[in-house]
Input
Amino acid sequence: MAFLMTTSPRIPELCSGDVLTRDEFERRYEAMPHGKKAELIEGVVAMGSPVRLRHHGAPKSALSFWLGSYGAVTPGLIAASNTTVRLDLDNEFQPDLLLCVPAHAGGQARIDADDYVAGAPELVVEVAASSVSRDLHQKLAVYRRNGVREYVVHRVDDAAVDWFVLVHGAYERQVADAQGRHHSRVFPGLCLDVAALLRRDFAAVRAAVDEGIAAVAAEHAAFVQRLQQPA
Output
C-alpha cells in the first residue's frame, strides 16, 4: 500500500509555557481552532482559561458599556474588545478592552496592514480575578514599559478597580475623588463611577460619563474636533 506524503509539515500546537518568537507565536495562533485565546508575555505563551459569567463576562460587559457611553459622544476614537496588540517583539496581548487615539490625531498606536494594533493604546482595561493575577504583575510591567498611558484593572473578587497612570515612565495608582469616581488624564471627560459599575447600575455609569464631559465641555469639544480631522 502506498502512503501519500505531504510537503507541508503540520504546524505545532500552541501550548501554555512555550517560549516563542512573536512571528512563530502568530503562525501557531492563526492555525488554532477559533474560540481559543492566547497571549505572548515576555516571550512565553499563556493560554486563556474558560471564561466564567460573574467573574469575567458580566464585568467585561459593564466596562464595555462604560467605554461605549463615552465613545457615543466622542466620535473618532478607536475602541475595541479582545483585540490583538503587538506591543514589542516578546509581547503580544489581547486585552479585554482598549481605547486609542487615531495616529492622525496624535495617537501612539497604529493599525498594521494585517489589521492588528501595533504599539501602545492610550488606555487598556483588563478584568482580573484578584490582586494576585497576571494582569497586576507581568502584564502591568509590560504595559508600563511600552507606554500604555492609563491602565485600568477591575479586580472582581476584591470588588475593586485599580487605575494606573503613567508618570515619568512609572505607573502611579490614581486615587478616586470624593465621589468615588476616576477621571482620565488622557481622554477629556472620561469618568468612571466605581460604585455604580460594581452594582451594575448602568444608568449611573452613563450619568457619570455625561457629568464628566459636561465638566470639561470645551476641552472635550476640542478633542472631538481633533479626532475628526482628515487622516
